[in-house]
Amino acid sequence: MITPADEILLRRAIAVAAHAVAVGDAPYGSLLADSDGTVLVEAHNTVRRDNDIAAHPELKLARWAARELDPDTASRTTMYTSCQPCTMCAGGLVRSGIGRVVYALATEQLVELNPQSGDWPAVAHDGPALFDEASEPVLAYYRPAAGSGADG
Length: 152
Fold this sequence. Notes:
Blueprint: H1 4-22, E1 29-33, E2 39-44, H2 47-50, H3 57-68, H4 71-75, E3 78-83, H5 87-96, E4 100-105, H6 107-113, H7 131-142
Parallel strand pairs: 3-4
Antiparallel strand pairs: 1-2, 1-3
Domain CMP/dCMP-type deaminase: 4-121
Protein name: Nucleoside deaminase
Pfam families: dCMP_cyt_deam_1
């Protein structure tokens, strides 16, 4: 459920998106707030400026949270973002441990406003294959060293 306090921070994320446009970047903005609503960090989309397909604000903030926050603190944060995170960013959010995401525009609404936003080709996938060979480095990494007490 989105609260009035959420709406205030969501408006700030939209303002970050508007700032992105003003400086020539794509219109996407996000911020991460702690459990008290204090903004910890903000970012906007810099994909074109940085020539980096991963420079989405949601992924930037997810990486920041994973690097800078302990898991318990990250789980109590909320990301406010101008648009629903794409699948790339959603994966990063899961791995970051961020506890909640509040977004303004749903992906379907974004595509209605800008049809190119949904125009991504499917990528062919083949596999699994070579299980025995592929499992060796994984097992070597996660298998505790004999007598070292490592837990992987």
